[in-house]
Amino acid sequence: MTEVVTNPTPPILHGPSDKEKKYDRQLRLWAANGQQALEDAHILLLNSGSGTVGVETLKNLVLPGIGKFTIADDAVVAEADLGVNFFLDEESLGQSRSERCVNFLQELNPDVKGEHFPKQEGDNIEKLLGYGRQYTLIMYSLPIEPYTLALIQQYGQQYKVPLVSIHSAGFYSYFQIHLPGCFPIIDTHPDSTATTDLRLLNPWPALSEFTRNLTKDIDNLSAHEHGHIPYLVLLLYYLEKWKESHGGFPSTYGDKKAFREFVSEGARTDNPEGGEENYDEAVAAVLKTVSEPSLSSSVKDVFEYQPTAEESDSSFWIITDAIKKFYGKHGELPLPGSVPDMKAQSSVYVELQNIYKVKARQDVAEVLETVRQHPRGKEIDVNEVETFCKNAAFVKLIHSPDSSADTLKEITGMFDEQALLTMMPLSLLPIYLALNATSHVPSASTSEIIATISKTVPEACSDPRVVQAAEEVARANGGELHNISAMIGGMVSQEVIKIITKQYIPIDNTCILDGITSRTQVLRI
Amino acid sequence: MSQPVMVAPRLQVPLSSGSRWAYLDNIRKNKGPFTDEESFDASGEGIGAMEKMRILVIGAGGLGCEILKNLALSGFRDIHVIDMDTIDVSNLNRQFLFRHTDVGKSKAEVAARFVEKRIKGVSITPHNCKIQDKDEDFYMQFNIVVCGLDSIEARRWINSTLVDLVDNENPETLKPLVDGGTEGFKGQSRVIFPTMTSCLECQLDMHAPRPAVPLCTLATIPRQPEHCIEWAHIMAWEQEKPFPKLDNDDPEHITWLYQKALARAQEFKIIGVTYALTQGVVKNIIPAIASTNAIIAASCCNEAFKIATSTNPSLGFEENYMMYSGNDSIYTYTFKHEKKSDCPVCGTTARNMELDPNQTLEDFIESLAARPEAQLKRPSIRSEQRTLYMQSPESLELKTRPNLAKKMGDLVENGEEIGVSDPSLGSVNFKFRLRFSRPFIPASERDY
């Protein structure tokens, strides 16, 4: 019989701490480890232009408790700032914009440290970036001077720091994430409906034995017992019977439909309800749970990726290697070990849960053993191996982008062709092209924007949609609309949280917002 | 050589340089390629008209705080905000107009005062009360309503109220409704032109309620930590009444439930009951973060701005609904939700409903709460011939109560139409044409 798995430490009978109270609604999303990652982070914002989008982004990072932030911006607060930036007031006029914004942002959360820059005469960008690796992530708003941009990019490369560029003008905006290398994520938070993995076609001995015990006298069970056999056990039982008569498991869609019918015929109908709930659950679960294990494309991508020498020393790739070996040997990933709720008696359900948990632990132990054989394997935390095994089917890799004029040309060449063929909404690439053409100038006329676009992708300039996008960008005259900056600021902060906590899946790598049609599009540019 | 830290030269603002609303006026005073020239007024008059508009914000919570800031920075000058809630410490991770010292104060009042102080020239009038406390005259004074609520019931109430306000003879009575909602990294924003486009009630099935756990599972065969908590919440509390009335915000009450749930979980060897989970289940807590609120609130205010200024086309008559999901990359879907002719608020026809005539009226009423398209918790029901059940007044409730135990087949005919209403949701009136899903077996012919 299986051991009873109980909680090793009994929960403590006290309420939440002050911090847990304040952050309750977010801890339910990224838990204590995500929160710790945020609190350890230091974000640098290089601000420019009308100066709002970066500050709106920071607001959404200060509130959840980012450790520290720095705003670098040498602008002096002008009247027009007060019409677009909430973190300035009348008294700020004529003062340092970075200092005033830092003060007002810090008010939002006393746990967060804020710094402004420049502080004194002679403070310059070299000094700002000259203290070594002290920023977790750098955001910069566009337009930006090419010289400054080059320094930031160099810093990002040297210290492996993610960079986020943001451009917001009028009704249009985009942001782009530049990761310094490949970015693997273990804790992707897949939808709970996607994670059920019951291994019905390949049960291990303990599970088969459990099924046999519960179903050996199935026709003579009392109504109560029969109506409380967990659907998982029912499926295993009927799969075995199906195999006896059909010589194999149901594999095609037609087979599965027939199998569904076969299961439902087993339900007793001579009761007031005219059926049994557990059988209904079993029937409903057939299509989703009766299937051969297969690797998702994102897991294949992780398995096939060749990490660089530097990368391969990280725990992620050492564990990946061990899991690859596990998969090679068993043809399955480690078992996640969770069992969805289903109609069953409490003790039977708990026992079933334990059977899955024990198997999951055995799988972890096997992976751990392989991990330990690696020269660096001893340093790897067993919890990380456990988490990886639990999420093995959902790990994801974001590749670092290889941006070049060619890719842009390639995307441009096909941007609306695809849309027309599939009746999908039209591509937002024209917006990116038009904004991108003003990356280094405070504002530009339609013809100037078109002229700049023609230098990189000349064929786009004859497209009327590109001309319209250029007109709309010219209309904004380099000024932000608060709503659009607040919206893209919210999106950027979500992405920054995902990158810092290494939870959920960030975009790859450019997100374009059209505030006119209220649509967004993610493109790899 | 020392370079200045300056990342871009200061912008040259050509129009009314140095003016407060220079950036906004780039848009308000110049048309773009998609601007509808008939409705767009680039003159000072157009801007004046916008500044005279009165706009109502419903909710001063996570979305509401953002909405107030955004509207004030969109050029709206006359804003009202209504919220009955007081500030709690768990609001502070996103409701950025509130500080620790504000805990316990009225959300509407603190939020209004903060934004008024920060942005000169904007007037914000707080209403510290329930939306249901205000009458038609109150809602009639606004030009646009923007909703940032977490409750479906309140949304349904304001939606039906705004639909009722519409008088086809008088275009002033049509109040565009912009509604936002968030959960975790996901959210949606939508625009409704009451009676003209799909209303919130037409879209109700987009927000299906979570299925309730059957009571017998809670009572006899718990399997999940949530089952133990629900048991403590629904059953143990009723039985033992440790305090006169359950207050979800009282830590002592939550601790009592937590300990009860924990003891039950240990009895059944169930793992996972924690204080946080207890609180989450009892209060039905939805995860909420600043980022998502920022996205959805800004999307709502962007639509309100476009409606008010005609600077660009807004959502509404074509696409009217944007959903946002940030869990896996960023995915948005903007589409047109169609108006339903059998909508209980803005439609006229009856909708068909499958009904098991052998169930009791009481079970039928209970099923109305779970149906995604109805979600009625306190419905009153009339058939073509008579009143089947009334929740109030008390005398009628008493008179109709005996019907609860009767079978539906004894009360209505196959194909009959029934009317279902729930005054707590405003004027939501469902018309269902019933179709029996099974033959009705009268009591005399039943063998069990």
Task: Write a brief structural summary.
The complex is a heterodimer of chains A (about 525) and B (about 450). Chain A is α/β, with parallel strands linked by helices and about 525 residues long. Chain A is built from 21 helices and 10 strands.
How are the SSEs ordered, and which strands pair?
The complex is a heterodimer of chains A (525) and B (448).
Chain A: H1 18-22, H2 24-39, E1 42-46, H3 53-62, E2 68-72, H4 97-106, E3 113-117, H5 125-128, E4 137-141, H6 146-159, E5 163-169, E6 172-178, E7 183-185, H7 205-215, H8 223-226, H9 231-246, H10 253-264, H11 277-289, H12 297-304, H13 309-312, H14 315-330, H15 346-373, H16 382-390, E8 396-398, H17 405-422, H18 429-436, H19 446-456, H20 464-476, H21 482-501, E9 510-514, E10 519-523
Parallel strand pairs in A: 1-2, 1-4, 2-3, 4-5
Antiparallel strand pairs in A: 5-6, 6-9, 7-8, 9-10
Helix pairs in contact in A: 3-21, 7-9, 9-11, 10-11, 14-15, 14-16, 15-16, 18-20, 19-20
Chain B: H1 22-28, H2 44-52, E1 54-58, H3 62-72, E2 78-82, H4 107-118, E3 123-127, H5 136-140, E4 144-148, H6 152-165, E5 177-183, E6 186-192, H7 215-220, H8 225-240, H9 251-267, H10 275-283, H11 290-309, E7 321-325, E8 331-335, E9 351-355, H12 361-370, E10 380-383, E11 387-389, H13 394-400, H14 408-411, E12 417-421, E13 429-436
Parallel strand pairs in B: 1-2, 1-4, 2-3, 4-5, 9-13
Antiparallel strand pairs in B: 5-6, 6-7, 7-8, 10-11, 10-12, 12-13
Helix pairs in contact in B: 3-11, 8-9, 8-10, 9-10
Number of domains of chain B: 3
CATH architecture type of the largest domain in chain A: 3-Layer(aba) Sandwich
CATH topology of the largest domain in chain B: Rossmann fold
Radius of gyration of chain A: 28 Å
Strand content of chain A: 5-15%
Strand order of the largest sheet of chain A: 3-2-1-4-5-6-9-10
The number of domains of chain A: 4
Radius of gyration of chain B: 26 Å
Which class do the helix and strand fractions of chain B yield? Answer: alpha/beta
Q: What coarse outline of chain B follows from CA principal-axis ratios?
A: globular
Query: Quick one: CATH class of the largest domain in chain A?
Result: Alpha Beta
Overall residue-averaged pLDDT value of chain A: 92
CATH superfamily grouping of the largest domain in chain B = NAD(P)-binding Rossmann-like Domain
GO biological process, one term (chain A): protein neddylation
GO cellular component, one term (chain A): cytoplasm
Domain THIF-type NAD/FAD binding fold (chain A): 23-521
GO molecular function (chain A): NEDD8 activating enzyme activity
